[in-house]
């Protein structure tokens, strides 16, 4: 999964771009639910939030390191495939 750092400026462009509805408005900044973030595996070649974020504040989450096959399994779980 990816996560949003405190550099987030609450611009709201990433939330609708996420194919898994993993992004939401948190108390201070936007947040990513690691149970829903597949790093866009299964949907797109690149993480859409990273592509669209104007301040480049969405790195990989060191607390949720996953392989490509982990992410694909999550995609299948979420989409019921
Ligand atoms: Fe959503 Fe993809 Fe960003 Fe994860 S990487 S939060 S799935 S847009
Ligand atoms: Fe924050 Fe970037 Fe999302 Fe904007 S696109 S709300 S700056 S994480």
Question: Any overview of this molecule?
Answer:
- The chain is of the alpha+beta class.
- The protein has one domain: Alpha-Beta Plaits, CATH 3.30.70.20.
- The protein has two helices and two strands.
- It has helices spanning 48-52, 68-79, and strands at residues 23-25, 30-32.
- It has a two-stranded antiparallel sheet with strand order 1-2.
- It starts with 22 loop residues before the first strand and ends with a helix.
- Residues 4, 8-14, 30, 52-53, 55, 57-58 line the site of one iron/sulfur cluster.
- One iron/sulfur cluster is lined by residues 2, 17-18, 20, 22-23, 32, 37-40, 47-49.
Characteristics of this structure?
81 residues; 7% strand; 2 helices; alpha+beta; Alpha-Beta Plaits; 2 strands; binds iron/sulfur cluster
Give the helix/strand layout.
Layout: E1 23-25, E2 30-32, H1 48-52, H2 68-79
Antiparallel strand pairs: 1-2
One iron/sulfur cluster binds at residues 4, 8-14, 30, 52-53, 55, 57-58.
